[in-house]
Amino acid sequence: MKTILVTGASSGFGEATARRFALKGWQVIAWARRLDRMEAWRQALPAECAERVHLQCVDIRVADQVQAALADLPVAFQAVDVLLNNAGLASGKDPVHEASMDDWERMIDTNLKGLLYVTRAVSPGMVARRSGHIINIGSIAGKESYPEGNVYNATKFGVDGLTRSMRMDLVRYGIRVSQVCPGMVDTEFSTVRFHGDRAKADQVYQNMAPLTAEDIADMLEYMILAPAHVNIADVLILPTAQASATIVHREG
Fold it and tell me: Is the pLDDT reported for residue 252 higher than 90?
């Protein structure tokens, strides 16, 4: 039985992917700060699937928490086959001369340092077993910059660079390293970016059909279940109505 560790599993891509793999018979380690949200979706699973899901309250921005959570895993969950570095966020959307440094710190600590802390903790086991798959959630924002994206763009460009470098470091051990870069997806992303202003967040997806969390989970499932000799290394996935980071066709 294979094991997947999903960060940011309380909502969005993380929740959708964790649920999907639990239903497919995998063992799932789900990490997030909101334990109650994870418990809610686990309880909605069939009993035989729910018992294969191990929930842990982890703030990936804290290296000691990451190491402690991994050390605390039951023996049956300790060999992680797939790591999905999903936890990440945008916080604020302002020009660089007006932006909040608290927002900057939050994005750098989560999108870059948190991803590194988790990868550093999990990857030695994969190296020892000479197998594994690490998937980082990037963004179209890591492929092309846009106005008022500044530090969010920088962190996702960083994820892109890290993914490429990690692939070079780990290829000799038979470990696949991949990246999925979504465009516009209707999850909590914009609500978080605009600090809980749902009306402002809804305007982002007005008069167009964005992707859903399940669309991203579909892509992740395809990548993970590809034959062992196949690494789908880098995917940019957009809604049909989106042509670039700044070009979106809206009806009406």
Answer: no
What single letter denotes the amino acid at residue 173?
Y
Active site residue 152: yes
Q: Which residue has the tokens 């999108």?
A: 111
What is the value of pTM for the model shown? 0.97
- CATH for 3-87+113-183+211-237 is 3.40.50.720
Catalytic pick among 117, 152, 173, 222: 152
Domain ranges of the chain: 3-87+113-183+211-237
**CA neighbor of 30 nearest in space, from 83, 75, 76:** 83
Closest CA to 166 of 177, 150, 182: 177
Nearest to 145 by CA among 245, 238, 249, 248: 245
Note whether 147 and 95 are within 8 A (CB).
yes
Q: Does residue 19 register a pLDDT over 90?
A: yes
